## 1
Amino acid sequence: MGVEEELAQVSPARDMLLTIGVFDGVHLGHRHLISQLKNQVKERDLLSGVVTFRKHPREVVSTHARLRYLTTIDQRIRLLKNEGVDEVVALSFTPEVARLSAREFVGLLQKYLRMCGLVIGPDFALGREREGSAETLRRLGREMGFTVTVVPPMKIGSDVVSSTAIRNALAGGDMKKVRSLTGRLFSLEGRVVSGVGRGRQLGFPTANIDVDPQQALPADGVYATRAYIDDKAYQAVTNIGKRPTFSGEGRTVEVYILDFNGDVYASNLKIDVVERLRGEKKFASAEELKKQIAEDIKQGRAILGSV
């Protein structure tokens, strides 16, 4: 399906004010931008809309770009809808879209989404070779009849809130910083698949989550987490990494759900990652590992009980 076919499916009832971007992570900076959009919508009696892309434009225009996403497209759409906008439009960013000029792209937004204004960040650009800077869009707006509002970046202390800053914090296992930049706990979800059964052999049966291969993961280590089963939250301890005591091959997400004896195999499991307990470590024996897991559980309970 081409971009025009995707846009034609929306059919808004009246004129719309839009913001556009990947919105990976739907962090506090994104939410600040959307709040400005909603304020204008009230003043101007318009509909609010967010246009997001299923794939990051950088991955399409550069064959070398391989980004890890903070949120899957389904998570992103759900989080954006939770912000209370009238429409979330997810477009497939293709080479065809990459070739559109800024004028052509905003023309399509006017034609199909009844776009009468844009709310953007200071570094935003759209169109072929990112030609549609804020200045260019303002000029096009005067010619084509739409407004452009540039919202300054959001800062927490000296940090500009951005998806890159969150990825960096995630790569360092700094879950407190991730939470401060996103305004919520970092989540992972996926189907529970069969593992090799080592956790069960050790007395700590784990659920192995098959996360999206493009999902950004926290640094390897053991984390205090919450697992959600049938909308009920359970305390859990999760190992993310390569299990160096055993195979040391391929990263896995293994969740030991505390005080739960049910079968979650083949179901979809979501976890919130609360805090890193320790890095991954190679143990001399299975017995030594069992002792450490018991200590991890004790520490995890203490942390989760206070959050």
## 2
Amino acid sequence: MKEEKSIKSLVLRVLFIVAIVIVVVILAFAIIKVIPYALSSFASMGNMFSSSSKNEIKISASNANLLDGERFLLSWNHRTDKIGEYKLTYKCIENFKISAVTENGIQTILCNTRYSLPNNKNNIELEVQLDKINSFSDVSLEILFIETQTQNIEAKGNLTITVRNDSNIPIGENAATNITTEPITENQVNNQNQATSNQQSSQISPAPQIRLADLAISNPVILNNRTIQFSISNIGGTSVGNWFFTYSIPGQRVEMSPVQPPLLPGQGIRYTLNFDSSVRGVSVINVDPLNTIPEITKSNNILSVNIAGGSTINNPPISNISKADLEISNLEVGRMSGSRFIESNSITRNQEAAVRFIVKNIGNRDSGSWRFEILNSPYQDEEEYRSSRQNSLRPGESKEIIVRFNRPEIGRYNIEVEIDSDDDVDEINENNNFDSITLRVTN
């Protein structure tokens, strides 16, 4: 009996050892098969996160809500093991530009170009300039990382800033006037366009053969001495994105509407303008005042409403303003290099000084011929420059003008430019005909 128990005990021990060996073998086999895949997965995840980080540039601004002439610090953060260069770019916006503040002075950064950022740091001081009064712009800044060897864009990042010309300009909020809106159906748009064409001398009608939008003001009504109504409709052949309009409070100031929603062809909005108090005089409504929307015509974008004021509601008839309106913008000084203008506020006396600016007819009639004058010019012989007669500008047409001064004297000049200096043009607004800038001429 003792021998049988001894044999059974030995067999059990052997079986136990064999079982342990089998378990160990199975575990070893599993480890050999599974661990490499696990490590590979972790590596793939690591590469994914690393790749995502390398393809994205994080951009920040010390201030993203700026006024004309203000400066801010633009910073970027990006990790890469490649050799390359960071570039800054932004799209062209009318009357807007960005300049870099460097040790050598202010340097203009041209729109739709790639400006090289410093490699020894990850920030740059910038200055914004918005020349159009009573306006604002949302500007998208983009930084690219371009690899030196392949010239491929390896990473990029975006940031949007808002620039206003006046701190009193509302963005996304109604100003001192209450504006209420009501959508208009396509049939109402057509009916109102027909009624307006009968009331006014110029007919408003779509041009389906041209695939452009066309925002038009129609059906104005004066309800009382503080309330007017009008419609703005897209009578063109394609839709428009976000837009806005301006309106003047008689005897006070010009206000800007909040950003308006996109309009498809045939869509419109009925507006009710409620002034805070009784007004007397002319209120001018201007649709797309910055001319950012390509349209069939701009002649139906401006409406003048004569509000008599007082207690009566029997006001004079409403009519569109039909005048030209010359506007000066983008005034710059610098020097000439052959036929190329180089902007700079400081030049030497042996360089050819130059003044550059743009004149645009933002009214709805041809301007006819006109002149301009430049006062405090750096001419040796005379301080005043008077131009020859300039050709007429059609509504929406613009002209770039460059005036050279080939013998500038040493000094500091507050150069003043006035367009339509002889008052030849009957204009909607005479207050946008003048601008000034400083030029320094050194030895």
## 3
Amino acid sequence: MTQKTPFDYKNTLQSSGFNIYSPIEVGDANFWIPTPHLETLLNQALTGLDLGGLALRTRSKVVKTAICEALGYPVPKSFKKTQPRFLGQQLDVYTQKSSNLQIWNEELSPTRRYAIIQISDQEIVLKIKVVNGQELALLDTTGTITTKYQAGLVTGADSHELISAQDTPPLLPYVQFGTTFAASISPIDEPECGALLPIQEIFDRLSMLVGFSFADPGMDQERNRGAALHRLICECLGYSLYEDKGQFPDIRHQLLEVKLQTSPTIDLGLALPSSEECLDIRQLGEHHPRHCDARYAMFYAKTDGKQVTLTHLFLTTGADFFTRFRRFEGKVANGKIQIPLPQDFFSR
């Protein structure tokens, strides 16, 4: 199947007769712009846009107008106060001079996309990063997002546990044993029909990592620890490239979420693994991948401060997640969410 370019989606929307409020199903093969393509279109159209001297309301309108034109939508005479602003693409927009992202009076949604627009001190658009709510929630180190889900991990006698004997039934037509990947394929690419490894084969390939050690970058370097593990996993799965953009799931091409646990508390973000809501991912054939279709690879590890040693592997579908791990109860959201964006947020 020929991969669509960002401009294919833009051209399709231009000829569709849709406006920004026309409903589109998450993952629709024709009209839902995959997040990486959405980010490309916005960066090509908005980078360098001068917002200097504009009142806040005027600036907001200029940005939203530019986004309409970038995505192939007609510009409405006036913009409705919908949540999110670009309803059809489940897209909200925030312009940021500071690294403190503030979201008022609404919860983060796992499938909503957030276009974070970096602007300079001179009010020039520098770069746009598009992430979904699940990915934003994982950046929250302040505890202001109180609806994040957690679960408990208790290791057993076995160092290797394949919790799900096979993938979820809707995913089975799209998996293929023995798949190899071209050198140009990235682990963060959209998943493809016939290019998904079965969960059993993922388990077999990753099992060799149990007992492996790597340098510990430090207790305050969780992201770097995770990156080291991601790199090892990509090699075991057969990728020539390593890329990580902080997305969910981590290895998008395999619908695989990766977690490195040095404590028994598993942070799950905004969505329960067992959720049947669609992922922010292009559909596979006739099926829109759901959270419960995702595969979760969890490595338990110990560290002496110098070396991280992987001691246990757990692999499960989202659907079976809570057959093995105990869910902690979530809490009620507050009115204001503040998320400190990492220094490398726009460079990932």
## 4
Amino acid sequence: MNKTYTFHVKGMHCKACVLMIDSELEDLPNVESVSASLQKHQVEVSGDFGEKTPEQIAEELSLPLANRGYNLTVEKHATKKNWSEFIYAVPIAAVFALLFVLLQKSGVVNLVDASEMSYGTAFLIGVIASVSTCMAVVGGLILSMSASYAKTGDTMKPQILFHIGRIVSFFSLGGIIGAIGSAFALNQASTFVLGLVIGLVMLVLGLNLLEVFHFTKKLQPAMPKFISRHVMGISKFNHRFTPIVVGVATFFLPCGFTQSMQIYTLSTGNFLSGGLTMLAFALGTLPVLALISFSSFSIKNSSKSGIFFKTAGLIVILFALFNLISSFVAIGWIQPVFNF
């Protein structure tokens, strides 16, 4: 007989985590339905588990989630904010900020003016996105797809096709978004609004990575859940074209970094500029995603993951503040703050 159980989830960081947990648990034979909640850090599971106790069920359901960094418990676990990790994160982020200023002065990157974001900046944001918790779902897709093809002994080709599909689609779909933007003939006010949205989205992403302000998780934008569910389902089909389709589908997954770049791409008003921007972003994510594809690489499960994510969070917040301030400068509301 089916019963409904509610378990607390350790390791949830963003809406991509919700998608990953739902997808993994729904495939289990005894499970009828799953509904995870980021706000409550809980998952509600309905199914027939016989005479097993809730503790035994939690342990059983944790097994397929363990390699993703999640763990289910009956009792609510205390939330540790680990402020001591900032002792290491702050100076590392400060060094990065100094490096950014030097690059800014040299003209290699341009983050203080959202209307003139360079491809180097898009690449850099891609690097940060690839190691953030928001990209965990893409790594999960790769691992799920790999598991399907590993049964037939085909491990290398699907991974290569996935990355080719991802890179080509980001250029093509980014170009389409850029071309669509040209139809709107964005004026100064429209450009200001887009820059403001990009800055706010990145600010929320940065705060989420710090893992100290949990209310910000409710503010993070995401694709409609039914679209993301279909994307996850595609990865489980063992067809020769599946890796390419999955690579294309990652363009629509709930990653705030991807969405902020898509918003910016709209403001380019040009197919080539929009395509190259999203291509640069995708290339920035490539090194880490390739490591996930061909090894057991995982920052999330590292003992130093807290320091790493707090450092990334501080860097993303710096990016967000640069963009927000420059947006207000561009529209004439405040005087220039940075002399770059």
